[in-house]
Write a structure and sequence with these properties.
With about 300 residues, the chain is of the alpha+beta class. It has helices at about 20-35, 90-100, 130-145, 175-190, 255-260, 275-290, and strands at about 10, 15, 40-45, 55, 70-75, 80-85, 100-105, 120-125, 155, 160-165, 195, 210, 220-225, 240. α1 runs antiparallel to α2 (about 90-100).
Length: about 300
């Protein structure tokens, strides 16, 4: 593939060029592919670099090659349709980087089965600079999830916090998975009221970590593992081990550092979880704690 404008600096504070970004995505493509393949992809593009205007893109242009992408059309709430690109080849990642894509966002479901997620994710969002706080929250949430038999892995978000992820047997409906994710988050926040919150509005969070459970519906997205973020330092959303949580900050793995991490896979032994036995346990725990979870729509709240 010929890289257009390869010498264009796209991370101006770091002197990182478009050619280097394309090379990065070519390098990590095999590792990234299992997480993005078959999913409705949303990308963040910066045609002139992150110092210029960027935008989110969901629709697949006609020029996207058919040998790299399938397409998935779905109705929009406001009318019309969105036609998402569906990655079907490892070369899709460097191809999109050559189109000015910096960041990849993925939903928890594949288009072949939009009603049954195979991942569940919690995004821990702390106040700016509160790394110790978000580390503590990650440990508490991991422990709470383990109490329900849910083994989790973690990754740097490339931004302010960490993500916790669990691989699922794709047998449970999306709404039920989201309810379980929310319920355990609520119980953990209730047990740690000075540390964690489910308050969606920033003004209501105070100095607490927001446990974002809202990325578990079919078209909700979270940053993909191994994706770059459009921030100073070219940070990567990188899988890490739990032992590394205290050593690596949420934006502590950059484009240059990531190459050294490709030799091992800290998530290799993660087994899928069947959440079926957990549903009733969480409902009972919420009732015992006197917690009522009201219907929530992030677009109306």
């Amino acid at each position: 593939m010929k890289v257009s404008n390869a010498d264009r600096v796209v991370f101006p504070d770091d002197g990182i060029t478009k050619g280097e970004v394309v090379a990065f995505y070519a390098l990590v493509a095999d590792h990234m592919y299992p997480f993005v393949e078959g999913r409705a992809l949303t990308v963040q593009r910066f045609p002139k670099g992150i110092g210029g205007e960027g935008f989110m893109q969901k629709n697949a242009p006609d020029h996207y090659p058919d040998d790299l992408f399938d397409r998935h059309e779905t109705p929009k709430q406001e009318g019309g349709t969105t036609t998402y690109p569906i990655v079907k080849d490892v070369e899709a990642m460097p191809y999109l980087a050559n189109q000015g894509v910096i960041t990849f966002h993925i939903p928890p479901v594949k288009v072949e089965d939009l009603t049954h997620p195979d991942w569940v994710v919690w995004d821990l969002d702390p106040p700016e600079g509160e790394v110790a706080l978000v580390r503590e929250a990650a440990v508490e949430l991991r422990s709470a999830l383990a109490g329900y038999g849910i083994e989790t892995v973690t990754m740097t978000s490339g931004s302010k916090g960490y993500h916790l992820r669990a691989r699922l047997e794709p047998t449970m409906a999306s709404d039920t998975v989201a309810d379980i994710a929310r319920g355990i988050a609520a119980l953990t926040a209730e047990a740690n009221p000075d540390l964690m919150t489910l308050a969606f509005m920033k003004k209501d969070r105070g100095d607490r970590v927001f446990v974002d459970w809202l990325r578990n519906h079919p078209y909700a997205t979270a940053v993909a593992p191994w994706s770059l973020r459009a921030r100073v330092g070219a940070p990567v959303a990188a899988p890490i081990t739990w032992d590394e949580l205290g050593e690596i900050t949420p934006d502590g793995i950059g484009l240059v550092d990531a190459a050294a991490r490709l030799e091992t896979d800290p998530w290799a032994d993660l087994e899928p979880v069947d959440l079926s036995p957990v549903e009733e346990e969480v409902e009972d725990a919420l009732e015992d704690a006197g917690i009522t979870l009201e219907p929530f729509d992030r677009f109306r709240s």
